[in-house]
Specification:
alpha+beta, 2 domains, four-stranded mixed sheet, two-stranded antiparallel ribbon, 10 helices, 8 strands
Length: 188
């Protein structure tokens, strides 16, 4: 672990390799799990605001779940997260013709309909950020459904932090990322 500003960062994001392999996993991270994707308080307002524009990109099941539960939910541990369809996939999930899960929010973004790409927790994955009162912990989340992504990342020699560069810059800023690159250069 090392400190960058007000963050404590796991060396795993430098030492481990990762590149999403949607051909192998079919977007399983949007489907599996017992909870929706974490969202921030700021994102709650954004989700409410963009929902009418995202709705045409959603599946009927997703619309029904959001209409019933809301654009976000509060978990049993009082965490904000996206709603689920039948306690399974994220309500915002979309599926390609070949059955690969994607994000309807990102589909709307890519179509130029909205200027919000997706919740930061999704954009950062496999990096997870836990905010505390004095600092944020930045960790690599190892999930067996992403084993193919680890293999591909290893083959392509792409460390986690480079794979999620855009999201890390979005979350912490370019200066923070440049400092991370300096640390990575001294470790490798």
């Amino acid at each position: 672990m090392f400190q960058l500003g007000k963050t404590i960062v796991s060396e795993d994001i430098i030492e481990k390799d990762f590149v999403c392999n949607l051909g192998a996993c079919k977007g399983e991270c949007c489907i599996s799990g017992a909870a929706g994707a974490p969202v921030t308080k700021d994102e709650v307002a954004i989700l409410k605001d963009i929902y009418p524009k995202v709705k045409p990109f959603l599946r009927p099941e997703g619309i029904a779940a959001i209409d019933k539960q809301g654009t976000h939910v509060l978990s049993t541990t009082n965490e904000l997260e996206t709603p689920l369809v039948n306690q399974k996939e994220c309500a915002y999930v979309s599926f390609s013709e070949n059955g690969t899960a994607g994000c309807a929010i990102e589909d709307a973004y890519n179509a130029g309909v909205i200027d919000f790409k997706k919740p930061i927790s999704c954009h950062l994955y496999p990096v997870r950020v836990q905010d505390y009162s004095e600092f944020s912990a930045v960790n690599y989340h190892k999930w067996p459904i992403c084993d193919d992504a680890c293999t591909l990342g290893n083959e392509l020699k792409v460390p986690v932090y480079k794979f999620v560069k855009e999201a890390l810059v979005r979350k912490f800023g370019i200066h923070w990322y440049q400092e991370l690159e300096k640390v990575a250069g001294s470790i490798s």
